[in-house]
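Please describe the entry underneath.
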Amino acid sequence: MKKLNKENLTGYVFIAPAVILLVVFLLIPFLLTLGYSFTNYNILKPGEMKIIGFSNFLKLTQDTVFRKSIINTFVFVILVVPLQVCLALGLALLINRKLKGISIYRLAFFAPTVLSLVVVSILWTYIYNPNNGLLNSLFGSFGIGPFKFLNDPRTAMLCIVVLSAWQGCGFQMMIFLSGLQDIPLHLYEAAEMDGATKIQQFVNVTLPGLKNIAVFVSLNIVVSAFQLIIQPMMMTGGGPQNATMTIVYEIYQTGFRYNQMGYGSAMALVFTVIVLVISLVQNKITSKSNED
């Protein structure tokens, strides 16, 4: 019994740091957010905080900017996930070759992933510059443009999608590469002996072999995409005309720029519910994929 208690105590000691971090950085903030969402809490006027019930949530139903931020976030996710997955898979197929100097290309394709998103966003802001940016200079040499890019509500979010896919695909490329190298070579040899073309080998051997990895990569990109904030913050400030305003950025602005922490907490709770539903769907997809 004493030995059992000693073993239990040792286990508690080992898990204590994780539990403490979980309580301090997850449970307590969540409870505070839940409490503040029913108040008119203002950061600069904490003494005037009052309980206002569901007023913040009722206000959200009439908040056009918040609705726009939800739509923008889903548009970003819908566009960036397939683009980034395709880029990552394409690059993985490209570098999955035994060629001299291929490691240099792997490093070059992976490099943007380790760069700060703030730095990358500033860099691409200059590339998208409507006056003397790199893209407009390139298009101008063909007599096309100039385009407004980030200053046009119709193209601003698309520009951020392209940047995000370029910056993040290097990491997923390495995951796909490891999956490609795990596919047995004899499957390709057998398909080739049966007269299968390269395209048929890709469809019937490569894609089935990467199925679970593709699901994992896609779900990771979805999670990251819903947290979009740095790119619109640094490049557009949520504009033009709120075309790039996202849920997380709107929560940040409401709580810390306009000091409406109570209203921002209500937004955060709605966002939590959205993420929870998406997580449940993801778990179901993952479970189904593992069963197959």
About this structure: The longest helix spans residues 2-36. The mean pLDDT is 88. DSSP finds 13 helices and no strands in the chain. Residues 21 and 27 are 9 Å apart (CA to CA).
